[in-house]
Specification:
Blueprint lengths: L9 H7 L4 H14 L2 E5 L7 H6 L3 E6 L2 H13 L5 E4 L12 E6 L10 H14 E12 L3 H4 L7 E8 L3 E12 L4 E10 L6 E8 L6 H7 L3 E6 L13 E7 L1
Parallel strand pairs: 1-2, 1-4, 2-3, 4-5
Antiparallel strand pairs: 5-11, 6-7, 7-8, 8-9, 10-11
Helix pairs in contact: 5-7
């Protein structure tokens, strides 16, 4: 079967992105420190947009996928909050001159940017939407050499989830790394108890090494202000699984 987009099936996406209290607390606290106006870029189904709105912040959730935005709106209504929503491509967007005290790109979404032009456009667009003392904050997996060298033909079980209608689902992964583009080409295979590989998605993710991150940020006119190794504000070390970047104009 031909690969699909994970973001065309928000019901499956949400199973792979369950609530994370530490992540939510980190981003809500960062946003509260800066001011009330928040842009949640690549907001998906609203898993962070809604907690930000529940914290009393004026938040706009923005995403490229209309299916994800519709699910986010439904989730917001169910939680009795009213964030704004906008459909944008984060590589080049314009929200009509609006500026924000905090712009958030959570859950490795920045790794959907691949080329240098992608990053320049993204950071440049963010800069146009930041208030004078505003901050961009995002998280991204640190490249794992063992994962990058994984056998591209070997399927690995990455999880088991329960769907309301489909029951127990297993998700397997294959991955092939392109060292020139620094892109890890991941494919996920979803199987239910009655159908093998009923859903297959491609998920190409950029690898960003720590020494190149400040250069990518600077390509769009921003600067790296602080960097953490986890959502508890611990320092970035060789053993960190992610890099969390705080940036400004």
């Amino acid at each position: 079967m031909e690969p699909n987009s994970l973001y065309d099936r928000p019901d499956l996406y949400d199973l792979m992105a369950p609530p994370n209290a530490m992540l939510e607390r980190f981003y809500v606290e960062i946003a509260r420190e800066r001011g009330r106006r928040v842009l949640d870029l690549a907001c998906g189904s609203g898993r962070l947009t809604i907690p930000l709105a529940q914290a009393g912040l004026e938040v706009v959730g923005a995403d490229l996928s209309s299916a994800m935005l519709e699910r986010a709106r439904n989730h917001a209504r169910a939680q009795s909050v009213e964030p704004g929503f906008a459909q944008v491509d984060m590589r080049d967007f314009d929200l009509g001159g609006r500026t924000f005290d905090t712009i958030i790109v959570a859950m490795n979404s920045v790794l959907h940017l691949h080329s240098l032009d992608d990053f320049k456009g993204f950071f440049g667009s963010v800069g146009k939407h930041l208030s004078p003392n505003g901050r961009l904050v995002f998280d991204a997996f640190l490249p794992n050499i063992a994962m990058l060298n994984a056998d591209p033909d070997k399927r690995e079980l990455i999880g088991t989830v329960v769907h309301d209608d489909l029951g127990m689902i297993t998700i397997e992964e294959t991955a092939r790394y392109d060292p020139l583009a620094q892109v890890r080409h991941v494919e996920w295979y979803w199987s239910s108890e009655t159908e093998t590989d009923f859903w297959r998605v491609k998920l190409p993710m950029r690898s960003i090494f720590p020494q190149e991150m400040p250069l990518l940020i600077a390509s769009g006119g921003l600067g790296l202000i602080a960097r953490f190794g986890d959502f508890d504000h611990s320092p970035l070390t060789a053993g960190s699984m992610r890099q969390i970047c705080l940036c400004g104009l």
